[in-house]
């Protein structure tokens, strides 16, 4: 059967589709263009397998095997002067390749160069921790575990860092829905009141544009307030903004300009 | 020795006020709404501005307290995350009756722009709310108006009624 397309407003249909659009690629160049990077790459190649290496935006990217990650970073830190790990995390390529890409962004202050070490692991595979080399990797690896579910071996404190400890699912995976799955939608209700409270509290309102003009249980128009739950489909009365009750407040005098006196001498 | 004549029978001269207990209690309650410091996000800045000298919450008797045991108002100022939801419920339960809640700003009202997995879509899913303030973030005047509305609400209720614990369910 043919797919249904609405015919009531054919003119409004956009005739442009992006079927021939190709994502622009950042230009790559060979590592031999830069002598500093070429020397670094030689140092890595002497001891480890390098799957690919190139320069992009003046930074060298080296793709290695996942089980070499600790040793390669140790080499870069101790022998190639890349003393800082400025960033590390994972990228979800599960849909395209069935793998996670782990990247380590390294900075050398003396050489003024940046190198990115990349490796790929399977979904269930664990990666070696680099926390012993770089203290900053502690929280980054915990975040990587929290957001992607990449387990890190030999980490001193492998625990979720941002989400609650009893959270299910890994939010930065491409398969995780932005507005949360079933568990996320009922998390606070289940935890505080228990599952039996779901019916009483009801599902979340996820429609940000939802406004019921006649809903007096959730909204009130300022200056037109009515008691809770009143039917206002026939219009509502004006209730001007008042700061206090009309008849005054016990023990509190209202300011009256008529009774007040303006002092002529301020320094009296 | 009194230097001036005090007419004890004239209104105002008398150091005695005749009224009902309800009114006295409500007068006390409505003019000493101690609020729990509950700034969760940028609305907290506006809440702090309301408490500072320019807007001066102290003249309403609203003093920010750092302990839920001493507070009777919770101004939920900011985004409530799902991780934090159990703590806000615990702090609310620790507050002594009578207690009131002001939900300040879009995030506290409905989750606001954070239509995501990690944000509670309105604090009224977790604790009962008395007043909702619109705005992102509401200005200090709005919070002041809310406190004055709350004062009116407190004065309207009979203070002598038995305390019915507020529960969401």
Return the domain count of chain B: 1
Terminal residue distance of chain A: 95 Å
Morphology of chain A: elongated
Helix proportion of residues of chain A, in percent?
10-25%
Biggest sheet strand order of chain B reads: 2-1-3-4-5
Question: Which structural class do the helices and strands of chain B define?
Answer: alpha/beta
Name the biggest interface: A-B, 34 and 31 residues
Q: What would you call the quaternary organization? A: heterodimer
Tell me the helix content of chain B: 25-40%
What is the N-to-C order of secondary-structure elements of chain A (H for helix, E for strand)?
EHEEHEEEEHEHHH
User: Which outline of chain B best applies?
Assistant: elongated
What is the CATH-assigned architecture of chain B? 3-Layer(aba) Sandwich
**Estimated share of beta-strand residues of chain A:** 15-25%
Top-tier CATH class of chain B: Alpha Beta
Q: What is the residue-mean pLDDT of chain A, rounded to a whole number?
A: 89
Mean pLDDT of chain B: 86
């Amino acid at each position: 059967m043919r797919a249904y397309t609405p015919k009531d407003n054919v003119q409004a249909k956009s005739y442009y589709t992006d079927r021939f659009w190709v994502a622009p690629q950042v230009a790559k160049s060979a590592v031999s263009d830069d002598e500093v990077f070429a020397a670094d790459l030689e140092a890595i190649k002497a001891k480890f397998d390098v799957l690919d290496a190139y320069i992009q935006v003046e930074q060298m990217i080296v793709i290695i095997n996942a089980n070499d990650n600790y040793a390669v970073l140790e080499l870069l830190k101790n022998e190639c002067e890349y003393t800082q790990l400025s960033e590390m995390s994972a990228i979800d390529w599960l849909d395209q390749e069935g793998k996670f890409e782990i990247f380590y962004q390294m900075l050398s202050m003396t050489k003024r160069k940046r190198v990115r070490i990349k490796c790929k692991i399977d979904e269930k595979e664990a990666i070696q921790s680099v926390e012993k080399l770089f203290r900053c990797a502690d929280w980054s690896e915990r975040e990587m575990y929290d957001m992607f579910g990449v387990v890190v071996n030999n980490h001193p404190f492998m625990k979720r860092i941002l989400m609650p400890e009893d959270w299910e699912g890994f939010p930065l995976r491409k398969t995780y829905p932005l507005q949360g799955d079933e568990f996320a939608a009922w998390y606070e209700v289940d935890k505080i009141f228990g599952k039996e409270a779901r019916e009483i509290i009801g599902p979340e309102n996820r429609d940000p544009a939802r406004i019921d003009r006649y809903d007096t249980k959730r909204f009130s128009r300022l200056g037109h307030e009515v008691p809770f739950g009143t039917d206002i489909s026939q219009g509502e009365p004006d209730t001007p903004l008042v700061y206090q009750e009309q008849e005054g407040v016990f023990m509190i005098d209202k300011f009256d300009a008529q009774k007040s006196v303006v002092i002529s001498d301020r320094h009296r | 020795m009194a230097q001036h004549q005090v007419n004890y029978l004239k209104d105002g001269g008398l150091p005695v006020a005749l009224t009902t207990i309800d009114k006295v209690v409500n007068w006390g309650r409505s003019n000493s709404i101690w609020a729990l410091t509950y700034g969760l996000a940028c609305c907290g800045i506006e809440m702090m501005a309301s408490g500072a000298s320019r807007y001066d919450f102290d003249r309403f008797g609203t003093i920010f307290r750092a302990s839920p045991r001493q507070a009777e108002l919770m101004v939920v100022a900011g985004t409530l995350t799902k991780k934090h939801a159990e703590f806000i419920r615990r702090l609310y339960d620790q507050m002594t009756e009578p207690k009131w809640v002001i939900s300040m700003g879009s995030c506290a009202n409905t989750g606001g722009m954070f239509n995501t997995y990690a944000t509670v879509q309105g604090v009224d899913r977790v604790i009962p709310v008395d007043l909702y303030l619109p705005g992102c973030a509401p200005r200090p005047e709005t919070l002041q108006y809310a406190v004055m509305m709350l004062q009116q609400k407190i004065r309207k209720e009979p203070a002598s009624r038995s305390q019915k614990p507020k529960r969401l369910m």
